Amino acid sequence: MKKAVDDSKFYSIVVFLFALLVRWLTSLGPFSGKGKSPMYGDYEAQRHWMEITYNLPIKSWYYNTTDNDLLYWGLDYPPLTAYHSLIMGFIANKINPEFVALHKSRGIESPTHKLFMRYTVIIGDLLIYIPAVFIYFLGNKSIQSKGKISCCLLALLYPGLTLIDHGHFQFLQLLKVSFVTLIAFLLCWLPFLRDFQDALQVLHRLFPFARGIFEDKVANFWCSLSIVIKFRSLMTQDTQILMCLVTTIILLLPSGLHLLLKPTMRNFKLALVNSSLIFFLFSFQVHEKSILIAAL
């Protein structure tokens, strides 16, 4: 028994170090938008959100102003992401104020800043994702001892999943989970709920209907079908939104009703996979990162 425990600890350390090494080696490669002005890519988007959240009051984060040009990587992620950017912005300013200097920091790609950006990702994994993976799999009694380490390795090395927190839901605990989720949601949105117009502006940024039924980089069902049917020229925006809404709801019903009538863990997992794929394939204006939910 003692040897089995020692072996488990040894392999856990090996998996941890290997996962860390893979992440670090990956970070040595090129990043999105490197040297490509005027937008510079997703790397600049993440940095710019630190700049905006650090320098501007919360009320201005989602509004187009002289200090916050929404056409230049305007913040269009939920408040929790904005709070994360704010924390990183504070740290960046302590290291080097030039990292988040308002307007003046656009396109910064110095070696020191790149190291800082990489550390924010690595440390996030070390503090949240990696411990969650080990705690979940090593403490899961339904998995055989020999398979625990393999599961950890698989979860930590999955290429499409980087900073997604791993959660496990029991039906018996659904009310507790729902309560915690609602409280967390309320706390995130509280600064924006004080003014109804602010809340509407955040929703406007999160649901960019003006961009059309899909963007060129997201190959979902509507993008594929647009080769034959030109939605943007044949339908009004309201009709497109309604079409996506009805299609998504209809396709969600079978697995949802099945889960409602037969609430088992297996059916719950199947419903999660089905709903995540349906939202990615058929909802209006899908973000490419939505496929990570299905992968999870």
Outline:
By secondary structure, the chain is mostly helical. 63% of the residues lie in helices and 0% in strands. The chain has helices at residues 2-27, 42-55, 79-95, 111-138, 145-157, 174-193, 196-206, 221-225, 231-234, 237-261, 265-282, 291-295.
- Helix/strand class: mainly alpha
Largest sheet: none
Q: What would you report as the Rg, rounded to the nearest angstrom?
A: 22 Å
Shape: globular
Uncertain residue segments = 162-170
Classify the helix fraction into a percent range: 55-70%
Strand content: under 5%
Order of helices and strands: HHHHHHHHHHHH
Q: Name the average pLDDT.
A: 79
How many beta strands in the DSSP annotation?
Answer: 0
- Please report the distance between the alpha carbons of the first and last residues: 33 Å
What is the number of helices? 12
Tally of individual domains: 2
Membrane topology: Multi-pass membrane protein
Organism: Dimorphilus gyrociliatus
Pathway: Protein modification; protein glycosylation
Enzyme class: transferase
Provide an overview of this structure.
The structure is a single chain. The chain has 296 residues and is mainly alpha-helical. The chain folds into two domains: 2-157, no CATH class; 210-295, no CATH class. The chain has helices spanning 2-27, 42-55, 79-95, 111-138, 145-157, 174-193, 196-206, 221-225, 231-234, 237-261, 265-282, 291-295. The protein starts with a helix and ends with a helix. This is Alpha-1,3-glucosyltransferase. Keywords: Endoplasmic reticulum, Glycosyltransferase, Membrane, Transferase, Transmembrane, Transmembrane helix. It is an enzyme of class 2 (transferase). Belongs to the ALG6/ALG8 glucosyltransferase family.
